[in-house]
Amino acid sequence: MVGEEPGVHARTPGGELASFTCPKCGRTSHNPMDVFEQYCDTCHEWFNAYGPMHYDRAGKPISTMQWSELHSDHSYVRVAETYRENIRVSTVWMGVGYSFGVGPPSTFETAVFGPDGTLSYVKDRYRTLAAAIRGHKGEVLWVTRNTPFSNPRPLSPAGRVVSRKYHARKRVT
């Protein structure tokens, strides 16, 4: 289905025209991307085998439209942001349920950005606001204690972030 020519409809192994029927409104789409992504153009929502895709800060399932409105409010998205010299630790509400059907969704994320503003690494994802705040404080503490500010966490020659374990063994000066 994916990668087919525009206007060419996907077929099932039996040769029938593939389709997706929205579980919410009951409308059927034969668009190959709608079938692949399980997307309803009427409801403007994605549906998948793992349940809802979007959640508010309290962990309550919300529609894609509600998520879009909340995600445009930066004060709602930003949980915490801390600068240590030229390094930024940022914790945000993503609203996307990263659980893939196993346990409650992880809708918050802490990331660390280097001096040039590029992403150095994603620390962790969290299921609750309280856990996200604790994780943010812990990462700020780790960055403060373990990162030489004149030379932040290095990248490997291939451009990948060097892990904490590697960084601890091979101290950069």
Question: What does this molecule look like?
Answer:
The protein has helices at residues 32-37, 64-71, 74-77, 129-146, 164-169; strands at 20-21, 28-29, 39-40, 45-46, 54-55, 61-62, 78-84, 87-93, 108-113, 119-126. The chain has 173 residues and is an alpha+beta fold. The strands form four sheets. The chain has a four-stranded antiparallel beta sheet with strand order 7-8-9-10. The chain has a two-stranded antiparallel ribbon with strand order 1-2. The protein has a two-stranded antiparallel ribbon with strand order 3-4. A hairpin with a 2-residue loop joins β7 and β8. It is elongated.
Q: Can you summarize the main beta sheet? A: 4 strands, antiparallel
| Number of structurally distinct domains | 2
Mean pLDDT across every amino acid position: 76
Beta-strand residue fraction: 15-25%
Extended strand count: 10
Q: Helix coverage percent of residues?
A: 10-25%
Give the SSE order as H and E letters: EEHEEEEHHEEEEHH
**Rg of Cα set:** 21 Å
Given helix and strand content, the structural type is: alpha+beta
Instruction: Give the spatial strand order of the biggest sheet.
Output: 7-8-9-10
Number of helices: 5
Task: Give the gist of this structure.
The chain has 173 residues and is an alpha+beta fold.
